[in-house]
Amino acid sequence: MTITHPDLRSGYALDDAARRHFDDNGFVKLPGVLDPRTIAAYEKEITSKVIELNTQHLPLEERDTYGKAFLQVSNLWQHSDLVREFVFSPRLARIAAELLGTDGVRLYHDQALYKEPGGGITPWHADQYYWPLATDRTVTVWIPLQETPAEMGPLAFAAGSHRFEHGRDLPISDESERALQQALAERNFPHFQTPYRLGEVSYHLGWTFHHAAPNRSAIPRRVMTVIYMDADITVAHPVNDNQRSDLRTWMPGAEIGAVPDTPLNPVLYRAG
């Protein structure tokens, strides 16, 4: 595969302060990871595929809280060679491996998250509730495809919450919003919510609790994400129906206790 935009394949100088911030807080925001021209080159195709593949057609007012949060379309890389270039970026994958402290990373899946104008909150949750994986060496890169000021609902984190085990049994829902908002506040986890400049991205661990405010702007908040896992991670016994569904959908044919080396889970970066 030939990647046409150099900053998708070149290295990124990840400094010690960024690594420490990630280890201590469970997330990090990194400036200038992608050139705005690179984002512009892929945004149109990503948005086109979101429109084509989206299955949510109810008006906002008729949806539940999860449905109001965003339009969600996964594994766009399977439907477009151009999106595949973006998702398979060695630069983005190498940053993920370096933050996790692993030799390499493989793809779990990608996910476009488009919060429509008037779209509601993204409730507090931790992603790894959904993932039947044996360790916590998982990370998501959150890539806004436009400038994302506060009124658009940028992703926000509870700093240090990746070590907080309360609430890990909650799917994203009204219940997770109520319970986690209270529990995180009671334990004084700092709330980190700032705008994203174009080209700035964040990485967060699977157990880091995060949420987002409503989109109060007049345009969609367009975001592309890629979920990475340690290249040598193994599949764990699913502990809820969502994990059983994820195993069938995103790691088809993978066996419990084995590395999920499936066609949907290629290694995207390996050191050396």
Automatic annotation (TrEMBL):
The keyword Oxidoreductase applies. One of its GO terms (molecular function) is iron ion binding. Transmembrane segments: none annotated. Keywords: Dioxygenase, Oxidoreductase. Signal peptide: none annotated. SUPFAM superfamilies: Clavaminate synthase-like. This is Phytanoyl-CoA dioxygenase. It comes from Nonomuraea phyllanthi.
